[in-house]
Structures are given as C-alpha cells and as structure tokens.
Amino acid sequence: MDNFNRRRFLEGTAGVAAGAVFAPSVHAQSAPAYKPEKGAKLRVLRWSRFVQGDIDQYMKNVAAFTAKTGVEVRVDNEGWEDVRPKAAVAANTGAGPDIILSTNDDANLYPEKLLDVTDLCEYLGKKYGGWYPACEAYLKPDGKRWIGVALGAAGAMLVYRQSHVKAAGFDGVPKDTAGFLKLLQAMKEKGTPAGFALGNATGDGLWCNWLLWSHGGKLVDKDNKVVIDSPETLKALEYAKEMYATFAPGTLSWLDPNNNKAFLDGQVSLTNNGISIYYAAKNSKDEKIMAMKEDIHHAPYPIGPVGVPTESHLFFNQMIMKYTKYPQAAKEFLRFMMEKEQFDPWLTAAGGYIAHPLDAYSKTEIWTSDPKHTAYRDCVKNMRPAGYAGKLGYASAGAGADFIVVNMVAEAASGSKTPKEAAERAQKRAERYYKV
Predict the structure, then answer these.
(1) Is the pTM of this model over 0.85?
(2) Using the 8-state DSSP alphabet, how is residue 346 labeled?
C-alpha cells in the first residue's frame, strides 16, 4: 500500500477500533431503519456482465430482496461506455433509473444530483472492517458526506500464457519495467505477442495510468495543477513506444472486449485484464479454449522507476439519484445487496472478477479456492484513484471520461505524434477541465 493509500485508510477508519479494521469477522451493528415507501418500485441501471456468474447471482439477490420487501426491481444492463452517457442524461434531466451502477469517478460529474448515503456507508464500514481508501477518494469528495456506495473494482492484472512466457526464456513476468520490456520483445520474436488496448476502453485502457505513474508522471499534482507535460511523462511515452512495437496489430482500436477475444483466439499471449479471460476459459464449451485454462496465469504490473506499485483498476460505484421517488427503498436495496448474506455469494459467483471494497470480505473463500484468483483480491486495497495525485471532482471525472491519458499514450506509442507533442496536447486538454 503506498503512502496515499495508507494515509487514506487510517483517516477513513479512525472511528473504528484498530483491532477491528483488519479483522475478518463481521461486527454487530444495528442496521439503519429504511422503510420502503408504499408502492415503491425501483429501476436499476448497471453495466453488462463480463462474467455470467455475476449477473446470475445479482439477479438472485434482487429476487430475494423483492420477496423480502415486496419492492419490484427492474434491472437494465448496458455496456460500460453506454452507462456513462445515460447516467449523465438522467442526472441532468432528473428522470430515469433510481439506482445506477457506474464506473470510476462518474459520481463526481454531478454530486449535487445524488442522494446522500452517508448513514448507509458508515453503517457498512463499521460492520465490515472499514472501506478501502480509494472508496473514500471516489465517493466522499468533500471528506464529509458519501455520494455513492462503493461496489468494488474489476481488477486489472497481467494475464499471460505461462508456456509462451517460458518459451521466450522467462520463468514468469519480470517485476521491473526494464525486464518486462525484454519479455515483450522476446515474445514478439517468438510469434506470441502481447496486446494492450489503446482505444477508448473504459476498463482496459487504465493500464495507461500504470504506465504514466510507474515513471513518475501524473495528470495533476496534489493541488490539482496540470503537470502531465513533464520529463517523467516523456520517459513513460518513450517506454510506451517500445512496448507498442511488440504488440499484435490493431490495438489502437481495441475497446474492452477486444483483448479478451484476441487472447482466447490465440492472437496475443499477454495482456492486461480482469479475471474474465480465465473465467471464460474455465467455462468454455470449446475444448481448445477450455484446455487453455491451465496455461493462463496472472501477475501484478511491474514496478517502474518510481520504485513502488502503481495499480489502476476499474472502480465500480452505486449511485442513488436524488430525483428518485423511493429513497428509502433505494437505500434498503443497496444495504441488502451489500450485506454478507448476499454480497459473499455474489463475489463467489463472479469468480474473482470483482474485488471487494470492504476489508472483511478479504476472507471470502473465492480468493483462495483457486490460487489464480488470489492476485485480484487486493485490487481495491492497493489501487490509486484515477485522478491521482489530485482531489477528485468535476475536473477529474471529466478528464477521465475524455480519455486524455489513454489518447496521449496511443498518439505517442503509435508515432502519430512525438512524445512531446502528445504530452503538450494532453496538457492543454486537461487544463480545460482543471481551470485555474
């Protein structure tokens, strides 16, 4: 855990006894008394599943909620790229879903349009061992009130074919960026290249944050001053050019589904992704793909010149829109879904695809039932928020939604712009959001 995360964790759990923060057990807490409104009906908009077990168990939990409360719940599923604009329209028009499951710091685009859920988050935090620091960074922007309930994150780790890594002359993925580049070059020479998304991919484009941070670059400093046009960024972009030279063709247009398909089709042997590739291989009806599961391994990103891990993962939040006619029913729905009786089976059914936001769930069996799951367990615990190193808000959310860092890396890596030109363009684009 880096200094940012350690500090935020201590701040965020100051009211919890030190021995309880990391305790695996659930602590007795009186649940808030949310009484669903008479005739309440809820509509939930959430991102589509990449793992079938996720949506299957989620809908079982929804049915259990309806059976318990009598509140009818409609769930609509959309792609990540489609949820964001639909959520923005709903916030601006004051009409639409009651609850929206969105990504990264989208909640900070319209915090005044979201229901205050501080009471619910404080209850869950005290009962389940404390929220991880990134959850507070994303959903408690003023340090006082929560504007959403953290759901977790789709962890982004390196997914690779172990046999192809060994054939390239390596026992595993090197732990440093210099060694990692040598691995990519060797795999390219063997005809088993890597591939990382360089299109506007909501989740899989986050590897560009790792690239930037690992070399000491960042979009903004702690005072929200845009500093992306820096010597550290230029070093990261030069490294990106060398990485890109080893990639399979087509990565400039890759969105979130593309690297999954390319990996399972044998076009690439190393990529960044959630556990969904491994999950798909384990559950495939295709014997060729199913046989691949034994060869699939996971590893954390290598550490760059900064000397510390710089993880970036796709954060998930749950927002209750302030316009809802049924705020009590909506809060009760999220409380019910986050309780151990529902949340633990959901984590398990998702096969490790979603990393938990509350420390008590680190002991969920899914993280040790298969050793290949364990790499994803601490993703939320260790992640930096996408707006690092500044304060999250309208600017960070807007800059993230505009894919400024991803576009900069794609331009420099592909040679359409020099690293300096790409960094200068990113600087100007970011300054439109972070107005002085």
Answers:
(1) yes
(2) H
* pLDDT average, residue stretch 12-21: 36
Pair 195, 324: CB distance under 8 Å: no
Measured CA distances, 332 to 33, 35, 38, 42, 139 (Å): 8, 7, 13, 11, 19
Query: What b/e sequence results for 398-432 when a residue is b if at least 16 CB atoms lie within 10 Å of its CB, and e otherwise?
Result: bbbbebbbbbbbbbbbbeebebeebbebbbebbbe
**Number of neighbouring beta carbons within 10 Å of residue 204:** 28
Q: Which amino acid belongs to residue 322?
A: K
Q: List the domains of the chain with CATH numbers.
A: 3-19+36-153+313-382 (3.40.190.10), 157-311+402-433 (3.40.190.10)
Closest to 141 in 3D by CA, of 395, 434, 392, 433? 392
Closest residue by Cα to residue 312 from 179, 154, 174, 426: 154
Q: Across-strand partners of 149?
A: 318
Q: Any idea what the Cα angle at residue 398 is, between residues 321 and 98, rounded to 5°? A: 10
Summarised one tens digit per residue, pLDDT across range 130-149 is: 999 999 999 998 889 999 99
- What value does the mean pLDDT take over residues 401-422? 97
Q: Is the pLDDT of residue 434 over 70?
A: yes
Backbone φ and ψ for 316, nearest 5 degrees, come out as: -115, 135
- 3-state SS, residue 290: helix
d(CA 158, CA 275): 10
Instruction: Dig out the tokens for 276 from the structure.
Output: 């969904």
User: Over the stretch 73-112, which tens digit does the pLDDT of each residue have?
Assistant: 999 999 877 898 999 999 999 999 999 999 998 999 999 9
pLDDT in tens, 36-49: 999 999 999 999 87
Q: Measured between alpha carbons, how far is 96 from 412 in angstroms, rounded to an integer?
A: 40
Q: What angle do CA 218, 223, 225 make, to 5 degrees?
A: 55
Assess contact for 185 and 241: CB atoms under 8 A.
no
